[in-house]
Structure formats: C-alpha cells, structure tokens
C-alpha cells in the first residue's frame, strides 16, 4: 500500500515538477543560464501551444544551446503571467497577443505594452464572419444593411468575452458601414467552439470568430463565411471574399507575438532577433503554422515596436466605439 | 465496414494496445487522485505526443479520458473524496458501502458498471454518432438552462428530510459561481482586485477543499474516538448475486442516458451521473436505502459517467467542438498533430475514427481487468493508519490544486474551502447541491441571459421548443415526484 501511494505521489510530483526553470550556465555573454518561455494560460490553449512550439523549434534546430522551459501561468487574461514576466530578467520571455493592449483599455489591467520589451510578432490568424449556408444574408453588404436598419434584429455569437478580437473586428467593420456597434445584439459564448455550435444549431444568425474555427465547416458546406479579415484571399479558401473587396478598408490580424521584461539591453534584443528570425525560417515552423491555420506575420523587434504603437492607437478607437472603454 | 475492420486491426496492433493500457492505467491513477484529472494528464502529455503517430496519440488521450472515469470513483468509495466532478455521485452510496465493510464489492461493482456503460456507449457511438450530433445542435441557450435547472432540482430532491439545508447549500454554490469577470458586461464580481479570481473559481478546488481537506479535518476531530480504532472490515472482493440483481437494470438504463447527456457539449459526466442517481432513487422500490449503501445507487452513476465520456467524443470528432475540459485539451493536441476534427474527419480519415472507436472496446476491457486487479491493492488503503493516510491526502490535495492554476493563491482557497467543508459537515449540510451549483452556476446564468438576449427579452423562448417543454416537465416531475409517491402510498393504505 505504501508503495502504491509512494508511486502515485511520485508520478504526481513528476507531473508538476516540469515547470521550474533550472540553474545557470557559464560564460559572460547572453544568455548565461537556462531560458524560460511563459505561457500566460493553462496547458492546451493557443498561448501554451505557441510557447511550446517556440521551445521545441529553438532547441530542435540548435538555435539555442541553453535549456528552455515553458511555464504556464494562467489567470486574468494574461495578467498573471505578464506580471510575473515584469519581475524577471532577460532570460524570461512571454507569449502575447492583442490582449496586452486591450486588457488595459478595457480596464482590467494596469499593465500596458510599454511595460515590456517587444521582441517579435510571430504569426497571425485571420478573423471571419460566418452565417448558415441557407441564411438570408449572402454577402457582407446584405448583413450590414439589415444591421443598419435594425441593429438588434440580428443575434451575433461571440466568445469568450466582449472586447476581444472577434468582437472588435466586427466593431470596426460595422463602423465602416455606418452601423452603431453599441446597439448590436451580442450573445457571449464560452469560446469559439461553442459559437460555432450555436450557429450550426440556428441559435444565432451570424458569428464572428477566428477563421480556424469555421474553416472546416465552410469546406463541408455547413457554414458560409461572408468575409475574412486578411488583405488578400487565402489560398485554401479562395471562394471567400475579404473585407477589403467588400468595401471595408481593413486588415484585421489576430496576431501572436513574444515579448521580454522591461529594460532589456540592445545586445539581448539582438540575440532574440537573430534566433527568432531564424526560427520562423524553418520548415517546422511552417508546419506549425499550417496545422494551426496561422499565416506568416513575422516582424522583428523594431518592426514590432512600431506595430504595437499603431495597434494601440487602433484598439483605443475600437474599444471606445464598442462602448466598453473604462 | 472495411474502414471499421481496418480500425479494429490497427487498434489491436501491439504498440497501440500498449498505449491503451498505459493510457488507461494513467487515467485510473489521475482519476483517483483528487485534483489531478484527465484534463491535466492530457495537457501534460501534449509535449510527449508531438513525436507520436497521430492515431496512437489519439488512442492514448482517449484512454486517459475514460480511464479517469473508472479511477474517479475509487477515492469516492474509499475516502469519501471524489477525484472529479463526475465521481461525486459515487460518494453517495459508495462510501456508505465501504463503511459497512463492502469496499471491495463496491469497487468491483463500479468497475463492472463502468465497463458496461463504456461498451454500450461505444456501440452507440458506432450507430448513432451522426444523428446524435444533429440532436445536440438543437440545444440552444434556453435548453441548456433548463437542463441545468433540472439537474439542480433533481439534486435538491435528494436531500429528503433536510430540504431547507439543501436549498441553502445550493444558493451558496450559485453565489460562488458568480465570482469572476462577467463575460456579458465585463463587470468584475467579488474578485477583490485579485487577478487570479477574474476567471472565476476553479470548481475542482472547491471539490478538493470541501471533500478531501474537509474530510481529513473532520476525521482529525474524531481521531481519538474509540470506535474509530476498531479495524474496518474489507469484505469480499466480488459482489454478491443479490447486489448484481439490484444493479443490472440500473446499469443498463443509465448507460444510454449518460451517453446522450455526454453528447451535449458542456453537459458532461457531472450532470449525467447526478441525473442517473436521482432517476434510480425515484424509480427504486427501496428509496430509503439510497445514501446508506444501496448497490444500484453506486452502479447507476458509474455506468452513466463512463458512457458520458464516450459520448463527449462525438461532438469533438464530428464537429470539432469540445464538449468538456478534457476534450478541449485533446482538440488542442490534435491540431498540433495536424488532425483537424470536424465534419470532414469522417470522410477524409475514416480509418482514424474507427481505430479510435475500436480502441475504446479494447480499452474498456483492459480497464475492467486493471481495475478488478487493483481492488485487492486499494482496499488496503482502509487499513492504512490515519496518521499516514491523512497527510498523504493533504499532500495530494495541494499538488492537485497547484496543477490546476499553477498558482499559490489557490492554496489559500483550498484551505478556506477545507474549513468551510468542515463546518458544513458538522452542521450536517448536504454538500452535493453546493458543488453542483458551483459547477453549473456560471453556465446556467450565462445561458439564461443569452436565451433572453436572443428572444429580445421574451420568456417564451423557455417553452418554445419540444426539447424545452420536455425538460420543464421532467423538472416539475423531479420536484413533485416525492409528493406524488406519498399521496399514492396514502391512497394505497386507505384502500387496503
């Protein structure tokens, strides 16, 4: 019996034990010790998979000699993990997304993108607007005209919370068409999967979600994607028009990036520019992107800095217009 | 049919049998340990599956998932500490059986019940996967709200004799479920500026705190009592013919019930096993024995929750929609492996689906054997002196809690709920209504609001579909059934 409990306890310990960063290495140059990538979410989600892919690719391709560990610090929509990052040195990085901007704008966090060092934008997903195949709205224009006429007549599925990219991309498009986004009828589901179920079951009229959630359904003719937020049509979905084609001047990426703690030296930033720049060139990275329906969106630290400033400006306006600004 | 046979052959390859056994055993172990559930186990294994053959990875993850359903009831029976939400119902009669010295029989019975439930559900998967996924789509916000209402009213009806306490416990649970950011309005409710609370309470922490920590604290209070020192009998390992006769119909009835509830995204094993338990209690000729060690009270929810875990794979595989925490993690892992579950999976990669289905037949047989063999070992837990056992339970509770959120904030929550559980036990409050309310409360509220949003505020949506009306009738029945029975008996007495 004792043996059994010991074994189970040991197994349990082993399961949690793999998230601590190790001891230091040698040398004067950066990096001097093992590296840590923070996924500010539980294992299994998008941020976790991004962090683990970065870890695996950097090590498998011998880009980084030091050990890299992934630590999961879920909570507060990234807040817990990023707060942790703030207190670390340059050996710790964290995965991020537009939440690093919107958390502050929505009033849920004091942290802003300026509290960190942007290192790279890695990839992006695209947003989509989808309806049932037999819907009376067969184009973005049909739908927007109805929204203009009676904003509350259309039930829109979104998840997991208002103020995310799914919501704000529609806010931006609606605004362009002269629809008041504050009057729209949003049904907030737990996540992208539930939103799609609701659409398939006819419980909502339209959903705004990541393209990957509805792509398979579209290919199987179970849903009809009205618009995609990329600048040009996507290869595997060449029957789906972009927002741009339909008169909305917007490209709306749902990007994923990586950032470091505040006050990194130029040398440290240059190190990551080189390594991450090489990583996104590998075949394996292409495979990761393909499996996840991501598109290449790499920007180095300097470009990311500029991109973040532009994004911050855009999101400030969108959150304002959505009526959720705090 | 060819794809089916091909799948059978693939799942019988030695390497895949090995993954099934490893997954099943691992699932049993994590299911047993409070807090460590299948979702954690699958998530931790994701980096391992990176290098695996996708089919093997899928088999392994599924085996962990239903293996945990077998394991979950072990600690419910032995320690009154469910390993997961779906094992709560096993404490109702499983633990009383163990206290009567029938622990071995209880575990053997629950393993057989799980096995039959699993096999029935797998067969159901083969025949009904497609039509059932269509049926599940009919469940809109109103129907989900009513299903959850039915579950809560059913569980309240269990608290015979202490109805008021049952209601109080449920309302405390519903209150706890409101903690966190409200997704519809963005308002922070009862988070006290702690970012960790903004996503709400992890219900497993409430379970571990109230059951595991609370149970240990309660027993510590009585540790010097003389009657506790007498050695508990373990009893025979195999169940008797009488126990089997009482259990066989409940097992056969509740397998399909659990399977159908499992297919509904978001419902899952907790709701399935609770509804099975209450159904059996109401159908039973000896409802007074429920809660005191009735074998069918253990067998029914065990059959049901295992069937539900198989059912939950249907929306995942046919529509790419995860119906539970574990299947959500599985979806993430499958995408990393380049498999995109969805409507095209059955057409593009049928051999993969049929391999999985066949592996579930093999896996349930393996798990039956594993769990029967483990009975002899596990009953020794009852012989373990308290001074050894309780520190181990506490340690496991803390480890399990840490894996849920990777945060020490949860330790405080664990202790708070531990003491809270102690108080509830001393005051003799039923715990299940509270826990179930915590599990379904958030969804219930959100579905209620979504239903009203989509109907522009009209309440007619709650009786606008046949499914909704059916659920309302069942809810009314579950509340009034005890009264009807009483009236019926009185009448019978008068006529006699």
- Give the CA-CA distance, first to last residue of chain B: 59 Å
When the domains of chain A are counted, the total is 2
> Strands of the largest sheet of chain B, in order across it?
1-2
How many domain modules of chain B?
1
Count of individual beta strands of chain A: 10
* Structural category of chain B: mainly alpha
- Unreliable residue stretches of chain A: 14-27
Question: Short summary of the structure?
Answer:
Chain A is 40% helix and 19% strand. Chain A has eleven helices and ten strands. In chain A, β5, α6 and β6 form a beta-alpha-beta unit.
Main features:
heterodimer, A: D-Maltodextrin-Binding Protein, domain 2, D-Maltodextrin-Binding Protein, domain 2, 11 helices, B: 496 residues
Account of the protein in words:
The complex is a heterodimer of chains A (326) and B (496). With 326 residues, chain A is an alpha/beta fold. Chain A folds into two domains: 34-124 and 254-322, Bordetella uptake gene, domain 1 (D-Maltodextrin-Binding Protein, domain 2, 3-Layer(aba) Sandwich); 126-246, D-Maltodextrin-Binding Protein, domain 2 (3-Layer(aba) Sandwich), CATH 3.40.190. Chain A contains eleven helices and ten strands. Chain A has helices at residues 2-17, 46-60, 79-86, 99-105, 140-149, 165-176, 192-200, 211-219, 266-279, 283-292, 301-322, and strands at residues 35-39, 68-72, 92-97, 117-131, 155-158, 185-188, 206-210, 224-228, 253-260, 295-299. In chain A, strands 1, 2, 3, 4, 5, 6, 7, 8, 9 and 10 form a ten-stranded mixed sheet that branches. Helix content of chain B is 73%, strand content 1%. Chain B has helices at residues 2-11, 14-32, 38-49, 54-79, 89-99, 103-137, 141-158, 163-177, 203-221, 241-263, 268-283, 295-311, 313-319, 325-336, 345-348, 350-378, 386-405, 409-426, 432-454, 466-495; strands spanning 180-181, 188-189. Chain B has a two-stranded antiparallel sheet with strand order 1-2. In chain B, strand 1 (180-181) and strand 2 form a beta hairpin. In chain B, helix 6 runs antiparallel to helix 16 and helix 7 runs antiparallel to helix 8 (163-177). Chain B is globular and about 60 Å long. Chain B starts with a helix and ends with a helix. Chain B: The chain crosses the membrane at residues 17-36, 42-66, 106-129, 135-156, 163-181, 201-221, 256-277, 312-339, 360-382, 388-405, 412-441, 461-484. Chain B: This is Tripartite tricarboxylate transporter permease. Chain B: Pfam families: TctA (PF01970).
């Amino acid at each position: 019996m004792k043996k059994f409990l010991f074994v189970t306890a040991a197994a349990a310990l082993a399961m949690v034990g793999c998230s601590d960063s190790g001891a230091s290495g040698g040398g004067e140059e950066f990096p001097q010790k093992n590296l840590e990538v923070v996924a500010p979410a539980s294992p299994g989600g998008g941020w976790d998979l991004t962090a683990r892919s970065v870890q695996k690719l950097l090590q498998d391709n011998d880009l980084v000699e030091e050990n890299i560990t992934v630590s999961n610090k879920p909570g507060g929509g990234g807040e817990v993990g990023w707060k942790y990052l703030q207190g670390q040195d340059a050996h710790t990085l964290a995965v991020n997304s537009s939440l690093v901007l919107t958390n502050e704008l929505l009033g849920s966090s004091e942290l802003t993108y300026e509290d960190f060092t942007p290192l790279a934008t890695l990839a992006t997903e695209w947003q989509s607007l989808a309806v049932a195949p037999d819907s009376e709205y067969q184009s973005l224009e049909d739908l927007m005209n109805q929204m203009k006429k009676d904003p509350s007549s259309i039930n829109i599925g979104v998840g997991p919370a208002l103020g995310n990219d799914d919501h704000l991309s529609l806010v931006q498009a609606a605004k362009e068409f002269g629809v008041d986004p504050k009057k729209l009828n949003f049904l907030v589901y737990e996540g992208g999967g539930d939103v799609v179920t609701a659409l398939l079951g006819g419980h909502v009229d339209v959903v705004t979600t990541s393209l990957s959630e509805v792509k398979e359904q579209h290919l199987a003719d179970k849903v009809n994607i009205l618009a995609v937020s990329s600048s040009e049509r996507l290869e595997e979905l060449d029957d789906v028009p972009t927002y741009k084609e339909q008169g909305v001047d917007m490209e709306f990426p749902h990007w994923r990036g990586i950032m470091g703690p505040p006050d990194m030296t130029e040398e440290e930033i240059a190190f990551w520019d080189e390594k991450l720049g090489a990583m996104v060139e590998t075949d394996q990275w292409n495979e990761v992107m393909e499996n996840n329906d991501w598109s290449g969106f790499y920007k180095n630290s300097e470009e990311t800095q500029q991109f973040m400033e532009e994004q911050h400006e855009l999101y400030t306006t969108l959150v304002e217009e959505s009526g959720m600004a705090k | 049919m060819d794809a089916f046979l091909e799948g059978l052959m693939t799942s019988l390859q030695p390497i895949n049998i090995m993954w099934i056994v490893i997954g099943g055993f691992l699932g049993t172990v994590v299911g047993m340990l409070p807090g460590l559930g299948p979702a954690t186990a699958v998530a931790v294994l994701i980096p391992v599956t990176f290098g695996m053959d996708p089919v093997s990875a899928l088999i392994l993850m599924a085996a962990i998932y239903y293996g945990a359903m077998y394991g979950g009831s072990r600690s419910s029976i032995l320690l009154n500490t469910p390993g997961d939400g779906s094992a709560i119902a096993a404490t109702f009669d499983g633990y009383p059986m163990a206290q009567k010295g029938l622990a071995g029989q209880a575990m053997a019975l629950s393993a057989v019940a799980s096995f039959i439930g699993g096999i029935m559900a797998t067969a159901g998967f083969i025949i009904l996967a497609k039509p059932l996924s269509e049926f599940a789509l009919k469940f809109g916000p109103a129907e989900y709200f009513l299903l959850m209402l039915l579950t809560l009213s059913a569980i309240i009806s269990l608290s015979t004799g202490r109805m008021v306490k049952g209601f109080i416990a449920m309302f405390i649970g519903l209150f706890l479920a409101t903690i966190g950011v409200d997704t519809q309005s963005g308002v922070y409710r009862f988070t006290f500026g702690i970012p960790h609370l903004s996503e709400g309470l992890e219900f497993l922490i409430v379970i571990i705190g109230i059951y595991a920590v609370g149970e240990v604290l309660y027993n510590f209070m009585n540790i010097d009592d003389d009657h506790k020192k007498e050695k508990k009998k373990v009893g025979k390992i195999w169940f008797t013919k009488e126990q089997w006769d009482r259990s066989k119909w409940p097992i056969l009835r509740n397998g399909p019930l659990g399977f159908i509830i499992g297919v509904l995204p978001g419902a899952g094993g907790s709701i399935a096993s609770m509804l099975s338990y209450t159904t059996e209690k109401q159908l039973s000729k000896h409802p007074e024995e429920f809660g005191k060690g009735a074998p069918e009270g253990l067998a029914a929810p065990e059959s049901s929750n295992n069937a539900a875990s198989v059912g939950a794979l249907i929306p995942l595989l046919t529509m790419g929609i995860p119906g539970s925490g574990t299947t959500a993690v599985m979806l993430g892992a499958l995408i990393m492996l380049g498999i995109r579950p969805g409507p095209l999976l059955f057409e593009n990669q049928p051999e993969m689906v049929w391999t999985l289905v066949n592996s579930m037949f093999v896996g349930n047989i393996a798990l039956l054997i594993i769990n029967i063999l483990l009975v002899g070992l596990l009953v020794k837990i009852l012989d373990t002196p308290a001074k050894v056992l309780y520190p181990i339970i506490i340690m496991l509770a803390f480890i399990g809690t840490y894996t849920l959120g990777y945060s020490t904030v949860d330790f405080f929550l664990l202790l708070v709920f531990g003491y809270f559980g102690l108080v509830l036990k001393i005051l003799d409050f039923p715990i299940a209504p509270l826990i179930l309310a915590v599990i379904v409360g958030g969804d219930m509220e959100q579905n209620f609001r979504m239903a009203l949003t989509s109907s522009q505020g009209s309440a007619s949506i709650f009786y606008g579909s046949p499914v909704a009306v059916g659920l309302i009738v069942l809810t009314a029945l579950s509340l009034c059934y005890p009264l009807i029975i009483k009236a019926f008996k009185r009448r019978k007495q008068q006529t006699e």
